[in-house]
Write a structure and sequence with these properties.
The protein is mainly alpha-helical. The protein contains 5 helices and no strands. Helices cover 81% and strands 0% of the residues. The protein starts with a helix and ends with a helix. The structure holds MU-OXO-diiron. MU-OXO-diiron (FEO) binds next to helix 1, helix 2 and helix 3.
Length: 159
């Protein structure tokens, strides 16, 4: 059974994950308009991942006897200076999400809620990958030709 403070914090993270999906969907639109189909495909896959993250939290709150309450999702930016700037923003966003997950773990510990601490471990590990995958693209874009990198990014959508 979730305590009220934990329930509220997890509900906040459901919305944060949906915002991530929304942000990356906005990047899909940007990459498509910037003629980067590979990057658009990469971000499309990322949108799906973020929705899965949101639903994992959603289902956990329900399973633990809580009630999911959805609130407003902020509008994401719609323009970036360049594909590199967009991926830098994605990397920065993932670092922020890592911080949010860390705060949830802290609350779960303060509430002596071991079940939620265990549940959140998946997200702790996932954030290592999320930061890694976005920073890897940043490095590729810094070091390579945009059209080559875009082709490589397009591979992700095929998986
Ligand atoms: Fe849901 Fe990109 O972390």
């Amino acid at each position: 059974m979730l305590g009220k403070r934990m329930e509220d914090a997890l509900n906040g993270q459901v919305v944060a994950e949906l915002y991530s999906a929304y942000l990356y969907l906005s990047m899909v639109a940007y990459f498509e308009s910037a003629n980067c189909p590979g990057a658009a495909g990469w971000m499309r896959a990322q949108v799906q991942e973020e929705f899965v993250h949101a639903m994992k939290l959603f289902d956990f709150v329900n399973e633990q006897g809580g009630r999911v309450i959805l609130t407003v999702i902020d509008a994401p930016p719609s323009e970036w200076e360049s594909p590199l700037a967009a991926f830098e923003a994605a990397y920065k966003h993932e670092q922020k999400v890592t911080g949010l997950i860390g705060e949830l773990v802290e609350i779960a510990k303060q509430e002596n809620d071991g079940v939620t601490v265990d549940f959140l471990q998946w997200f702790v590990n996932e954030q290592v990958e999320e930061e890694e995958s976005t920073s890897e693209v940043v490095e590729k874009l810094k070091g390579g030709e945009l059209s080559d990198v875009d082709k490589q990014l397009g591979q992700r959508a095929l998986k």
